[in-house]
Amino acid sequence: MPSSDHDVARCDSCGARIRWTTTALGRSLAVDADPAEDGNQAVYRDGAGRLRSRGLSSERPTLEHAEWRARPHVASCNRPPRPRRSATRQRSGVRPPRWQGWQR
Which pLDDT tens digit goes with each residue over 4-43? Predict the structure, then answer.
């Protein structure tokens, strides 16, 4: 269970209280600041005091040691950010001509 609110931030989209964790793959994951009984993430503090999270799976379905259940914030955000679009390059103009000295 989280003992303090010193690492609580606000969601840019909806303004809800969140905590940023680091997953096993080193990615950032926002979880709701308050524990959730129906959460699918196990959150804990590592030896350096950073918040870490792991997904509860069929291999490790229960909480271990000082972990607490949390819900990913993307599941509860009422104004989730829009997915990013990949930048597609617009092609225009003509293809440059082959150089005169270029041969196959």
Answer: 777 899 998 888 999 999 998 999 999 999 999 999 999 9
Supply the DSSP symbol for 72. B
Amino acid in the structure at residue 53? S
> Do the bridges between strand 17-22 and strand 41-45 make them parallel or antiparallel, or are there none, so unpaired?
unpaired
How far apart (Å, rounded) are the C-alpha atoms in residues 2 and 44?
9
Give the integer Cα–Cα distance in Å for 68 and 85. 35
Looking at residue 102, its pLDDT comes to 57
What is the number of alpha carbons within 13 Å of residue 104 lying toward its C-beta? 0
For residue 29, which of 82, 84, 71, 83 has the smallest C-alpha distance?
Answer: 71
| Nearest alpha carbon to residue 2 among 63, 72, 66 | 66
Residue 87 has pLDDT above 70, yes or no: no
